[in-house]
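[step 3/7] inverse_fold.run input=structure_tokens len=130
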């Protein structure tokens, strides 16, 4: 696989959801920018939780945390993408998962403790020199 490298910049969208994720930055750590019709947030470093799983890297950020109401997170499942350096990128399609977890002082309500909204994000994966 000479001449190939792992993508480090992912630009993904679907409908109102737009996500840009860079595994590295000038500041040294990852950066994730998320926006939809209601939320526009940027995350850096430890605000981005990265977990290696059999399905790929699970990248998670907390979009909203309202005490005694709910916590909303957004996750991407990214596979390793091999690309040519200096290319315009490889087309990819990945799941984006918005998870809403109710929180109350009285403890968990009956029923599911996480509600999921899953969207198939499409875009590009490429390698950029940071």
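[step 3/7] decode complete -> sequence:
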């Amino acid at each position: 696989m000479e001449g190939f490298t792992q993508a480090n910049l992912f630009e993904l969208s679907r409908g109102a959801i737009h996500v840009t994720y860079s595994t590295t930055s000038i500041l040294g750590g990852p950066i994730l920018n998320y926006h939809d019709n209601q939320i526009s947030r940027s995350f850096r470093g430890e605000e981005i939780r990265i977990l290696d799983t059999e399905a790929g890297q699970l990248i998670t950020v907390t979009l909203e945390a309202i005490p005694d109401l709910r916590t909303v997170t957004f996750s991407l499942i990214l596979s390793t993408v091999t690309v040519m350096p200096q290319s315009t990128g490889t087309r990819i399609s990945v799941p984006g998962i918005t998870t809403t977890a109710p929180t109350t002082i009285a403890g968990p309500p009956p029923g599911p403790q996480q509600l999921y909204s899953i969207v198939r994000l499409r875009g590009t994966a490429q390698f950029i020199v940071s």
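[step 4/7] annotate
The chain has one domain: 5-126.
The chain has no helices and eleven strands.
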